[in-house]
Amino acid sequence: MKLQVIDVSILICYLILMVLIGWYYRKKASQNKESYLLGGKKLPWYMLGLSDASDMFDISGTMWMVSLCFVYGFKSIWIPWLWPVFNQVFNMMFLAKWLRRSNANTGAEWLASRFGLTGTGVKASHNIIVVFALIGCLGFLAYGFVGLGKFIEIFVPWNIVEPYVHFHIRPEYVAHFYGIIFTLFAMFYSILGGMHSIVLGDVIKYIIMTIGCVAVGIIAMQHLNGKALLFPHGWDNPFFGWKLDLDWSHIAPDANKKIAEDGFSVFGAFFMMMLCKGIFSSFAGPAPNYDMQKVLSSRSPKEASKMTGFVSIILLPVRYTMVIGLTVLALLYYKQLDLKVAGVTDFERILPAAINSFLPVGILGLVLTGLMGAFMGTFSGTLNAAQAYVVNDIYLKYINPAASIKKTITANYITGVVVVAIGVILGFFAKDVNSILQWIVGALYGGYMASNILKWYWWRFNANGFAWGMITGIAAALAFPFIFDGLPLYNWPLLFLISIIGCIVGTYTAPPTDSEILRSFYRTVKPWGFWEPIHTLVVADDESFQPNKRFRLDMFNVVLGIIAQLCLTILPMYFILWMKVPLLVTIAILALIIFILKKTWWNKLED
User: Fold this and answer.
1) How far apart are the first and last CA of the chain?
2) In this structure, what is the dihedral angle of CA atoms 245, 250, 251, 252, given to the nearest 10 degrees?
3) Is residue 233 a contact partner of residue 254, using CB atoms and an 8 Å limit?
4) What span, in angstroms and rounded, lies between the C-alpha atoms of 208 and 197?
């Protein structure tokens, strides 16, 4: 164990600070449910943007990205499209402001503005989105739990701890034990202060993380210093053909096994499937997790757009400075790193192993603290979203609508404890970080897409269609792992088709949504899409009404935004490896896109 007194002191000071922040904000968070869950909708967009970026900068995801960067090189910049990361661009250009115009507290509450409070399928649509949100939140809690445990295990080997606790744990469950310990700590902090403490804690963590990431990049450049990296042909090229064609046989043979296990060998097919799914997923809008809660917490629709745009700018260059820095260190000293677990190479251990091996005293403490904070940020944001759905959309809607503020806050506390317990239990059944991620983004979200695309763009789509689309999609997503082997991504077209059928059948077996509700939604949200019959009714009521005619401009901005996002991702990779010509080209492209978007997006923002 390389940790020194100064490293441990930095971590302990951070943990104490987080507890103090939670304690300080406990009274403010207890004022009402909106203050607890959404910060009273008074937090500025740049604070929310920093918080959202911090929530996305999680240990598990970063461990996964470092393993991808090591194995797939520059081609790894495409693989996060599995989420897809470019959904932030769609949110930035139009969907965030559409969502925020509802003034709702959760995604389930938002449905009332689209489908009303009564009618066929309304109750079912409300309940199914709550179920989906909770399944997703529990999946992400398990994902964070597994990643945190694997991370801590590197720094605190069990053979050092075991003599002090006087009980034995099988090697495969050591990570789970550590995950439980630190999850309990994070649970206490996040439950205590609500959204106020979560956002401030995320901002502090982001500052620490940025310092740590820059330090890792500098250290990697110092170690590189003219040395030749050993990697397969094509590793340093972001572009690809139909097949991946990366051969690690003479450098790290186990990397070839990982490529085969991941199912990414035929990269062209994987990319097209990922892009197609990603576009549909992005048109559906934010999923009901911490990302949506941050949008709903913003002060106005205009600020919601700014917030989502800010996330990519402040997240990607910083995160990928660490990713490429640790990858360079791992390539230089691959044979010195202990990546074996039960005799099998686990590339997700590169991040903690490289940090533990090559970072000096003080910097190690900062990076460790930042990554620990990254877990707490992701965990607290996800937990907050789960609490919002249970308390706001189950407890206050069905169990105790007249609950006092004190009872509501108590319900939040109890919900937090129960949700964490279930998330931890699910973590015990997960194979690894990647297996959870693949199921969430490849399967579960495939069942979410159809209903949540149609709700924005098709006037005839009703609550009954939404409910049946979600029910069929989620049921298929839960069943597919037992029916099909292989990468869940390749199953999503069938999943999407099943969900679409459920949407259409459900829609046409019930009458249209009340026209007054549709007129109100269309006037308030102003979406583009297939709304002509409702547009005619709205114009009949108000001849001065101007419809949203920004479809082409929004799509143009989305394309530019995705290219800019890729540039922000690969920029630190070119810089750390000092690939001068690609670096200058990337900077020039990025500058041009920023100039255009200033005119086509920023100057045209509206509430």
Assistant:
1) 53
2) 80
3) no
4) 17
CB 401 within 8 A of CB 27: no
CA quadruple 578, 580, 584, 586: dihedral, nearest 10 = -60
What tokens were used for 321? 């400075």
Task: Take residue 434 and report the two structure tokens written for it.
Answer: 């990647």
**What is the spatial distance between Cα 490 and Cα 478, in angstroms, rounded to a whole number?**
15
Q: Which residues of 382-397 are buried (b: 16+ CB within 10 A; e: fewer)?
A: bbbbbbbbbbbbbbbb
222, exposed or middle or buried, with CB in 10 Å at 0-12, 13-18, 19+?
exposed
Question: Which tokens is 317 given?
Answer: 């260059």
Give CA–CA dist 48/404, Å, rounded: 28
Residue 209 makes CB contacts below 8 A (sequence gap 6+) with 54, 57, 318, 370, 371, 373, 374
Q: Say if CB 77 and CB 238 are below 8 A apart.
A: yes
pLDDT digits 0-9 by tens, 338-365: 787 667 788 888 888 888 888 888 888 8
Q: What is the pLDDT of residues 61-120, one digit of tens each?
A: 788 899 999 999 999 999 989 888 999 999 999 999 999 998 888 877 888 899 998 888
Phi, psi of 462, rounded to the nearest 5 degrees = -120, 180
Pick 429 or 291 by higher pLDDT.
Answer: 291
Q: Per-residue pLDDT tens for 395-451? A: 888 888 888 888 888 888 888 888 888 877 777 766 555 555 556 655 566 677 899
Determine the Cα–Cα distance for residues 403 and 391; give it in Å rounded to an integer. 10
CA distance 186 to 36: 17
Measured from the Cβ of residue 24, the count of other Cβ atoms closer than 10 Å reads 15
**Burial level of 595, CB count in 10 A (0-12/13-18/19+)?**
exposed
Could you report the per-residue pLDDT of 555-564, keeping only the tens digit for each?
999 999 999 9
Interatomic CA distance for residues 411 and 96, integer angstroms: 29
Instruction: List Cα–Cα distances, 132 to 127, 289, 467, 471, in angstroms.
Output: 9, 10, 11, 9
What does the CA dihedral 528, 533, 534, 538 come to, rounded to 10 degrees? 110
For the stretch 312-342, pLDDT in tens is: 999 999 999 999 999 999 999 988 887 876 6
